[in-house]
Design brief:
Largest interface: A-B, 22 and 28 residues
Radius of gyration of chain B: 22 Å
Strand content of chain B: 25-35%
Structural class of chain A: mainly alpha
CATH class of the largest domain in chain B: Alpha Beta
Number of domains of chain B: 2
CATH topology of chain A: Non-ribosomal Peptide Synthetase Peptidyl Carrier Protein, Chain A
CATH architecture of chain A: Orthogonal Bundle
Number of strands of chain B: 24
Number of helices of chain B: 12
Shape of chain A: globular
Shape of chain B: globular
Helix content of chain A: 55-70%
Largest sheet of chain A: none
Largest sheet of chain B: 8 strands, mixed
Strand content of chain A: under 5%
CATH topology of the largest domain in chain B: Rossmann fold
Oligomer: heterodimer
Number of domains of chain A: 1
Distance between the termini of chain A: 15 Å
CATH class of chain A: Mainly Alpha
CATH superfamily of chain A: ACP-like
Radius of gyration of chain A: 11 Å
Chain lengths: ~80, ~400
């Protein structure tokens, strides 16, 4: 499932920072809920691009996991 | 009001500032402060004492400082006692007048990546620092959202623009973006100057719109025209400007939207040759690191030309990586990683992304005996300790060999 893969990517990004997810990710989870910095978001962008061939910030600003899933499904 | 910093619970009036400046104190020409208010207070105290200011990023590691030739002893030996100025300066306006009268004599050293990536010293005169400052009575009620690192050129520019007009500065760099959005509204900030990356991070947290902002100025990175529609919606009264500035040359010109034009006063001092921007040495600060071609400094900024002398910035010629406006020299990062046991070889380059422009990526050839997972953690740990945050590789990949150079050609 897409959300599981996204969750895995985010968990690794947080782990690299010495942090972890405090709760499970859903489509309603925002980047702010997770506490992602601008560097983390940039890393997430390229990891998602490598995995799904989608640039999530290409067309503007997104703020939550649901918007990422939508972009991936639309591709 | 002079300074508001919600994170540090600071509210400082211009009278508070005057009293602090006038107070006899032990100062240091080296300024390395975590609190940005203290960065500016100490710059002012040094200038008024006839001393230069040497500004250091607070997050420079001891190793990075050592490479710059700066030790704890160097810093200790640069302390001096500032006299009581209370009979000399009776108002902030007197201080501003003094600074303007002595602008050619005052200098400031910035140790920062600038255009080169590897920290180098660049000396700017106060005259150069304040070249772009505009003072007019219509600016007197401006309230600035301060969204730059205070030790970087853009931050100094915003500071002096606000200070010379005795405006309020609201320090928001490093704050939570939800909080920043609220503060911009509640404090009725009128002017926001920041990098496009900062702005893209802020936008999702802006609920409704912020009508108070009448000026949005972007610098440090190429402007992303895709965010313009979001700006119009959330900041309906804002005029957008882009600034071209560098640590080497200071603030040179502004654009409306994406298009720049060389101002009349600089037509003999700025030129475009083979689509690259050149700046005459007369406009530069002082540095041993400048490599000139005759009288000209090659910026490495490549442009696209349009009718009527207009141009847009396209990309950078050099191998510098631009991470949200901060320049990274890949060789500096490679040098650190090469020292790590288990790394056989490394190449560092920028990976494009729509949010920050680029992020730093490292491809590693590891020694066969090394566990990849352990080595990756070690590389992350050591680079985080030795380098400023924006230089730390965000993606680390292990490869058997290198196929491409960082510019996409076969590595020799």
């Amino acid at each position: 499932m897409i959300v599981n893969k996204i969750s895995e990517i985010i968990e690794q990004i947080l782990k690299d920072n010495g942090e972890s997810l405090s709760s499970a990710i859903t489509q309603y989870t925002t980047f702010q809920d997770i506490g992602l910095t601008s560097f983390d978001l940039a890393t997430l962008t390229v990891e998602i691009e490598d995995e799904f061939d989608v640039d999530i910030f290409e067309d503007g600003i997104i703020t939550n996991i649901g918007e990422i899933i939508k972009l991936i499904e639309e591709k | 009001m002079f300074w508001i910093d919600r994170l540090r619970k600071l509210e400082i009036t211009y009278l508070d500032l005057l009293n602090k400046i006038n107070q006899q104190s032990s100062n240091n020409v080296f300024i390395r402060e975590e609190n940005p208010y203290l960065v500016f207070l100490n710059i002012l105290k040094n200038f008024l004492s006839g001393q230069r200011s040497i500004i250091l990023d607070y997050d420079f590691s001891e190793d990075e400082l050592y490479k710059l030739g700066i030790t704890n002893t160097t810093i200790k030996e640069s302390e001096y006692i500032q006299e009581d100025f209370s009979k000399k300066f009776h108002s902030i306006q007197e201080i501003i007048f003094y600074l303007k009268t002595n602008k050619k004599k005052i200098e400031l050293d910035i140790y920062t990546s600038g255009t080169t990536g590897r920290p180098k010293k660049i000396t700017q005169s106060f005259e150069n620092l304040t070249r772009g400052v505009k003072e007019q009575s219509i600016y007197k009620d401006n309230i600035w959202g301060f969204a730059y690192n205070p030790t970087h050129f853009a931050g100094l520019q915003v500071f002096f623009q606000a200070f010379f007009n005795t405006n309020t500065l609201v320090y928001i760099f490093g704050n939570d973006f939800k909080r920043i959005s609220l503060d911009l509204k509640v404090l009725q900030v009128s002017h926001l100057s920041c990098t496009p990356t900062f702005f893209k991070m802020l936008l999702p947290h802006v609920e409704g719109n912020i009508n108070s902002i009448v000026s949005l100025t972007f610098g440090g990175e190429k402007f992303d025209p895709k965010i313009e529609k979001f700006i119009i919606k959330k900041f309906p009264n804002a005029v957008i400007k882009n600034v071209y500035a560098s640590t080497e040359a200071g603030s040179l010109f502004r654009s409306d939207g994406e298009y720049f034009i060389i101002p009349e006063k600089y037509v003999k001092l700025i030129k475009i040759e083979n689509l690259e921007l050149y700046i005459h040495k007369e406009l530069l600060g002082k540095s041993k690191s400048f490599k000139l071609v005759g009288q000209w400094y090659k910026t490495g900024d490549i442009v696209e030309l349009y009718d009527g002398g207009k141009f847009k910035f396209k990309n950078r010629k050099s191998e510098m990586i631009n991470v949200g406006g901060y320049k990274v020299n890949p060789s500096e990062v490679e040098d650190i990683i090469k020292t790590i046991k288990g790394v056989a070889d490394v190449i560092v380059f920028g990976r494009k992304n729509s949010l920050m422009g680029e992020i730093v990526v490292a491809h590693i050839v590891k020694e066969s005996s090394q566990n990849a997972k352990d080595l990756k953690e070690k590389i992350k740990q050591i680079t985080s300790l030795e380098l400023q945050e924006f230089k730390v590789p965000r993606l680390i990949k292990f490869v058997d060999s290198f196929e491409l150079t960082r510019t996409g050609k076969i590595k020799k």
